[in-house]
Amino acid sequence: MAEQAQYEELARQLSAVGAVKRDMARILPPDCPAGSAAVLTLLGRHGDMRMSKLAELLAVDMSVTSRHVAHVAARGWIERLPDPADKRSRLLRLTPAGLHQIDELSRRTTHLLTERLSHWTDDEVGQLIRLMGRLRDDFGDCRSAPVRLPAPLAEQSAPVAP
Fold first, then answer.
1. pLDDT-derived band of residue 123, with 50, 70 and 90 as boundaries?
2. Burial label, 46 (beta-carbon count in 10 A; 0-12, 13-18, 19+)
3. Residue 101's closest CA among 23, 39, 22, 25?
4. Are 41 and 28 in contact (CB under 8 A)?
5. Distance between CA atoms of 66 and 88, rounded to whole angstroms?
6. Taken in order 68, 70, 76, 82, is the CA torsion positive or negative?
7. Which element (helix H / strand E) includes 118?
């Protein structure tokens, strides 16, 4: 098992990944912010779905999901169709323009990663992919499992009565 100092350094490194994500967000087309890109990517990966499923996958509430969906729908990247299983619900589906937008997002992201990691070997990139996948798997579905803080931290965060 790793030592405490290693976990502390890992926490610092994971926090610094925010800079990588911000750099990746800067290369997105002006009319496709990160939330819209996430909607398109999830629909591309998982296919047609209800807004409730999309909100679950995005790990945000329905009001945020609704804003993202309205944005991509207004640009013609998705369509809302009646759900054959429940006529009151709508299914979200990518349009050909949405598929084209996903291709553009992929091209931009791949270009940035290729540029920034050009000095990495194929094996190093493969190791990073495997380890990041393993890290994500070990965290599982972060939306459904409550975080359990160690007793000292939990006590520190508890409100103090006056």
1. very high
2. exposed
3. 39
4. no
5. 16
6. positive
7. none
Max CA separation in the chain (angstroms): 60
Rounded Cα distance between 157 and 150, Å, is 11
Q: How confident is the model at residue 154 (pLDDT cuts 50, 70, 90)?
A: low
Of 35-44, 59-68, 80-89, 117-126, which gets the smallest average pLDDT? 80-89
What is the H or E stretch that residue 84 is in?
A: none
- Residues 27, 33, 34, 36, Cα dihedral to 10°: -130
Has residue 5 got a pLDDT over 90? yes
The residue among 20, 44, 15, 30 whose CA lies nearest residue 103 is 44
